[in-house]
Amino acid sequence: MLAAADALFATSDVPGDVTMDAIAAAAGVGKGTLFRAFGSRDGLLDTLWAAKITALREGVESGAPPFVAETPPLERLVAFLDEILTFKLENRHLIRARETRSGLLQSAHYKWMHGQTQALIEDAMGRSTASEALYTAHALLAALHIDLIEEMLASGLSLPAIRKEQGARVRTVIDGVRR
């Protein structure tokens, strides 16, 4: 079912329009089977997202390079946000389908990304209030919304340029809060 959904989202010009009926037909199951398995379309999207983000999560949580303790906190933050950018671009069809729906900020995946970002910000800042790190994490993740990334690419920014500017922005934000 997940493979059928992934294929439909990947080939759709408007992933937000892929229906549970279409997914059920492509998977050769009844629509009720999808709803029993995933609860909703967002549940299916979140399950598919979880399957795809597992490698990134494991790398971050296990302390694989560049997330080792010896790497300066600011550089771990830059690397983490770069990994999120890469993940979103590699899975843009799925991300576009999920980020256009309500409830994204309450999803387990966004909460994980936000929690990791907030913790890395707190480490990188050295001193900060919880509200500073909370807000800053949301602001930095907002810049990684798939529509914005795709607009930057369509406007002529290359992926290396986006990566460079993203890293510079993170450093500027953290340096500004440190002062």
Automatic annotation (TrEMBL):
Which molecular-function annotation in GO is an example for this chain?
transcription cis-regulatory region binding
Give start and end of each HTH tetR-type domain.
Answer: 1-56
For this protein, the DNA-binding region equals 19-38
Gene3D superfamilies in the cross-refs: Tetracycline Repressor, domain 2
Record carries keyword Transmembrane: no
InterPro entries annotated for this entry?
Homeodomain-like_sf, HTH-type_TetR-like_transc_reg, HTH_TetR
Q: Name one Pfam family in it.
A: TetR_N
> Which parts of the chain are coiled coil?
none
Q: Which UniProt keywords apply?
A: DNA-binding
Q: What is this protein called?
A: TetR/AcrR family transcriptional regulator
